[in-house]
Amino acid sequence: MQAHKTQLSDTRIKLILEADQQLLDDVRRETLLRLKRDVKIPGFRTGKVPLELIEKSVNQQTLQSEFLDAALNRMYGAALQEQNVRPVAQPQVNIKKFVPFTTLEFEAEIEVIGAIKLPDYTKVSVPKKPVKITDKDVDAVVENLRSRMAEKKLIERAAKDGDEVIIDFAGRDTKTDEPIQGADGKDYPLTLGSDTFIPGFEKHISGAKAGEEREFALKFPKDYGVAALQERDVTFVVSVKSVNEVVLPKTDDAFASKAGPFKTLEELRTDIRKQVTSEREYQNDRDFESELLSKITELSSVAVPDQLIDEEQTRLEQEERQNITYRGQTWEEHLADEGVTEEEHHARNRPGAELRVRAGLVLAEIAEKEKIEVTPEEFEMRLQLLKGQYQDPAMRAELDKPENRRELASRLLSEQTIAKLVGYASKK
């Protein structure tokens, strides 16, 4: 077989393939052997008919069609391996010459993963931030525990800072008087003085008693998380349903013993420090890995096919839509909250999708260069650990599906490759 490659662009090539007679003879024989199983000729047992008779007996159009498909697939697969081509989609095939069993020439245009040029990644590093836990960090966890263990007493007096109020509230646009999606709530517990609502909201509730209703206008901050509400004038109507006095426990040894298996407050604080340190170190390691991979990707030259970016962008948006649905919001409401159109949202996500694709290709190239492989033992061990997290047999069965097994294998390969990069960087 002769194969000639033409580079049409960084991510698109053309292969011109011409079969030799030996290949055509082999494919013709294999095609006849496949058809032989279904041919019945008087005087011969099924499957025992000579190939010469098979060729004369079968429908010639069927024979030529199956022969052509088999020959194209064999030549295309061999050419990919010979030319070291990594396709990302099915080829566009154009048959140039075809004489059954004697001549076959075709061309295939293919979108491919382009050239990947890596930096000397063994010498790339990024600063790793030190993990430092202060007494203030421990105090914050202790205060959180106190709040969770606090006793709440229903009271009739006016609410003040430190009290919990149960409220219903609804917001409407001050100018148009139209209700605002996402600016309402029912039976919402709010601790006055916690500053968890928009600035100014809590002070308008302070001094209110159960059964009291208050109406007031506020302007949302310009850096508010929901773009549609930034710097917007909103009028709130708030009904105070009840007021609870929050009685926090004293931070003493008795408090520590209620919080866990601790005899003293110092033991509790020591355990908190260990837990917070472990969490911060874990996150610090993940941040370091992410920054290291981003730096190596930035220094790499990667020709990324548009189709891979499109597929990644679609996948990310599908995940986002699912998360929005779980939160009980429609996609249209989400876009309104973000203050963007469908087209603007799509365009905004593309750079992130491209970066993820580039990083994935760089990791795969490094794994190949380093000859990193996931052993069957490593794969099975991780698979069993994952299955152990689920009690539902159906969920365990999901992990055995081919696509999920491939995803797990890919994840393990990425983890091992990143670990290799971290090892190089740690020597700096």
Question: How is the topology of this model organized?
Answer:
Blueprint: E1 2-9, E2 12-18, H1 21-36, H2 51-57, H3 60-83, E3 92-99, E4 103-111, E5 116-117, H4 135-148, E6 151-155, E7 164-173, E8 179-191, H5 201-205, E9 213-219, E10 233-247, H6 253-259, H7 265-299, E11 301-302, H8 306-326, H9 331-338, H10 342-369, H11 376-387, H12 393-399, H13 402-426
Antiparallel strand pairs: 1-2, 2-4, 3-4, 5-11, 6-10, 7-8, 7-10, 9-10
Tell me what you see in this structure.
With 428 residues, the protein is α+β, with helices and mostly antiparallel strands. The protein has four domains: 111 residues, Alpha-Beta Plaits, CATH 3.30.70; 72 residues, no CATH class; 97 residues, Roll (Chitinase A, domain 3), CATH 3.10.50; 123 residues, no CATH class. The chain is built from 13 helices and eleven strands. Strand 1 and strand 2 form a beta hairpin. Helix 7 packs across helix 10, helix 8 crosses helix 10 and helix 10 crosses helix 13. The longest helix has 35 residues. The radius of gyration is 33 Å and the shape is elongated. It starts with a strand and ends with a helix.
Bulk shape: elongated
Number of DSSP E strands = 11
Helix content: 40-55%
Number of domains: 4
Mean pLDDT value: 91
Main sheet makeup? 5 strands, antiparallel
SSE string, helices as H and strands as E: EEHHHEEEHEEEHEEHHEHHHHHH
Ends: how far apart? 50 Å
Offer a quick outline of the entry:
The protein has 428 residues and is of the alpha+beta class. The chain has 13 helices and eleven strands.
List keywords for this structure.
four-stranded antiparallel β-sheet; elongated; 428 residues; Chitinase A, domain 3; 13 helices; 11 strands; alpha+beta; Alpha-Beta Plaits
